[in-house]
From TrEMBL:
Belongs to the thiolase-like superfamily. Chalcone/stilbene synthases family. Pathway: Lipid metabolism; fatty acid biosynthesis. SUPFAM superfamilies: Thiolase-like. Its EC number is 2.3.1.-. One of its GO terms (biological process) is fatty acid biosynthetic process. It holds the Pfam family FAE1_CUT1_RppA. The lineage of its organism: Eukaryota, Viridiplantae, Streptophyta, Embryophyta, Tracheophyta. Keywords: Acyltransferase, Membrane, Transferase, Transmembrane, Transmembrane helix. This is 3-ketoacyl-CoA synthase.
Length: 415
C-alpha cells in the first residue's frame, strides 16, 4: 500500500521490514550473550590459568601436590553435599484417561428425551439452550443404568466411582507395566462424592495393597485438585526414595446431578460428564528415559480469602431442600485473576535471565526514573512452547489468550 505526496513522491505505509530484521537479530544476540555470559567470562580465566600452569616444571607441580589434593577433596565434598541435598527428580511415567462403556453414551437428543420427563418445561428449555452451546458432542457419557433416568442414589454414586477409578487404574498399569504393589503412594481427588471408607481406601482394598502404602483423599477442591494432588505427590516423593505415586482425578457426576429449579445449579448438569484420569509419577532414575515428562515447577495461588472467589462454585440447598452446586457468573473473572497471579509467580522460575533483566529494567525506568513507557511483557516463548489449558470451553481459552497478550495487566501484581 502506498500514497502519493503533493510533490509527486511516493510514501509507503508498509513497515520497514529491514529494520524489523535488524532488531530481531539484535534481540537474539542479546539473549545469546546473556544466556552464555558465564561461559564467556570463564573462558579468559581458564585460558590464563592454562598459560600459567604451562610455565610450571615437574618440581613445581610436586611442591603444589599437597595443595591440589586438599582442593580436590574440598571440591568432592561440596559436590557430594550438593547432590545429596538437591530435590529428587520426579517423572511422569505415563497417564490414562478412562473411556466409559458404550452403554453409558448419551447423545444430546437422548439427553433431551430423558430431561423432558424429569424437569419442568422452563428448566428443560434452559438446559437445552446451555447444552447446545456447551460444545459437548453426541459421544459423552452419563452413568444411567436404570429405567429411572437422572434420579441417582448413593449406590449408583458408589458404582460409578468404582467403575471409573478401577477402570482408569487398570488402563494405566497396562500402559506402564508397573505392578500395583510397587506403588507406595496413592492420592485420589473427587470434589463432591467422598464416601466412608474413602475412595483411596477402596483402591487399597480392591488391589490388596500393603499396609505401608501412603494414601490421601482430597475433596471439595474443584478442578484445581488434580494439580494440587500432583504437588502433594511431588512433596511425598522427595522423602521416599525409588517409589511410585499414583494420582487419580475424577468427578462423580451422578453425585452432583441437580433436579431442582435454580438455574445456577442446573449449569453443572450441562457441563460435566462421566470420566476419570490417572497419572503415574516416579522418582526412580531408571524411569527417566521412558517417562513422558519431568516435573519442574508447581505453582499454586489460593484465592479463597476473596468472598467472590470463595462462592464462585458453591454447594448448598435450594428453597426446596435439593442439594446442588451453583456456578457463579464471576467464575471466569476469578479464574482469570488466579491465572494472572500464577503466571506472575511462574515467570521468575522459568524465564531466562535475559528476559528478567529487561523486565526489571522496565520497572526501574518507569518507577524510579519516571520514564513514560509501556510495561515490558516478557516473551514466554523463550521459556516454553505450549500451554495446556483447562478444558473449560472456548470462553476459558479466550480469557487465557486475553491475559497472555495484555500489555498493561499481566505483571501488575509483580510491580
Amino acid at each position: 500500500m502506498a500514497e502519493m505526496a503533493p510533490n509527486g513522491e511516493v510514501h509507503s505505509n508498509l513497515p520497514n521490514f529491514l529494520l524489523s530484521v535488524r532488531l530481531k537479530n539484535v534481540r537474539l544476540g542479546y539473549h545469546y550473550l546473556i544466556s552464555n555470559a558465564i561461559y564467556l567470562l570463564l573462558l579468559p580465566v581458564l585460558a590464563a590459568v592454562g598459560v600459567h600452569l604451562s610455565t610450571f616444571t615437574l618440581e613445581d607441580l610436586m611442591n603444589h601436590l599437597a595443595m591440589l589434593k586438599s582442593c580436590s577433596t574440598f571440591v568432592v565434598f561440596l559436590a557430594t553435599v550438593y547432590f545429596m541435598s538437591r530435590p529428587r527428580n520426579v517423572y511422569l511415567v505415563n497417564f490414562a484417561c478412562y473411556k466409559p462403556h458404550e452403554r453409558f453414551m448419551m447423545s444430546k437428543q437422548r439427553t433431551f428425551e430423558y430431561g423432558s420427563d424429569v424437569f419442568d418445561e422452563e428448566c428443560f428449555i434452559f438446559q437445552k439452550k446451555i447444552l447446545e452451546r456447551s460444545g459437548l458432542g453426541d459421544k459423552t457419557y452419563i452413568p444411567i443404568e436404570s429405567s429411572n433416568p437422572f434420579k441417582f442414589n448413593f449406590n449408583s454414586n458408589h458404582n460409578e466411582a468404582k467403575i471409573v477409578i478401577i477402570g482408569v487404574i487398570d488402563d494405566l498399569l497396562a500402559k506402564t507395566g508397573v505392578k500395583i504393589r510397587e506403588i507406595g503412594i496413592v492420592i485420589v481427588n473427587s470434589s463432591v462424592f467422598n464416601p466412608t471408607p474413602s475412595l483411596s481406601s477402596m483402591i487399597v482394598n480392591h488391589y490388596k495393597l500393603g499396609d505401608n502404602v501412603i494414601t490421601y483423599n482430597l475433596g471439595g477442591m474443584g478442578c484445581s485438585a488434580g494439580l494440587i494432588s500432583v504437588d502433594l505427590a511431588n512433596r511425598l516423593l522427595q522423602g521416599q526414595a525409588n517409589s511410585y505415586a499414583l494420582v487419580v482425578s475424577t468427578e462423580i457426576v451422578s453425585a452432583a446431578f441437580y433436579l431442582g429449579k435454580q438455574r445456577s445449579k442446573l449449569l453443572s448438569n450441562c457441563l460435566f460428564r462421566m470420566g476419570s484420569s490417572a497419572v503415574l509419577l516416579s522418582n526412580r532414575s531408571s524411569d527417566r528415559r521412558r517417562s513422558k515428562y519431568q516435573l519442574m515447577h508447581v505453582v499454586r495461588t489460593h484465592k479463597g480469602a476473596d468472598d467472590r472467589a470463595f462462592r464462585c462454585a458453591y454447594q448448598d440447598e435450594d428453597e426446596d431442600g435439593k442439594k446442588g452446586i451453583s456456578l457463579s457468573k464471576d467464575l471466569m473473572a476469578v479464574a482469570g485473576e488466579a491465572l494472572k497471579a500464577n503466571i506472575t509467580t511462574l515467570g521468575p522460575l522459568v524465564l531466562p535471565v535475559s528476559e528478567q533483566l529487561l523486565f526489571f529494567a522496565s520497572i526501574i525506568a518507569r518507577n524510579v526514573f519516571k520514564v513514560k513507557m509501556k510495561p515490558y511483557i516478557p516473551d514466554f516463548k523463550m521459556a516454553f512452547e505450549h500451554f495446556c489449558i483447562h478444558a473449560g470451553g472456548e470462553l476459558c481459552w479466550m480469557r487465557v489468550r486475553r491475559i497472555l497478550t495484555s500489555r498493561n495487566r499481566l505483571w501488575s501484581l509483580q510491580e
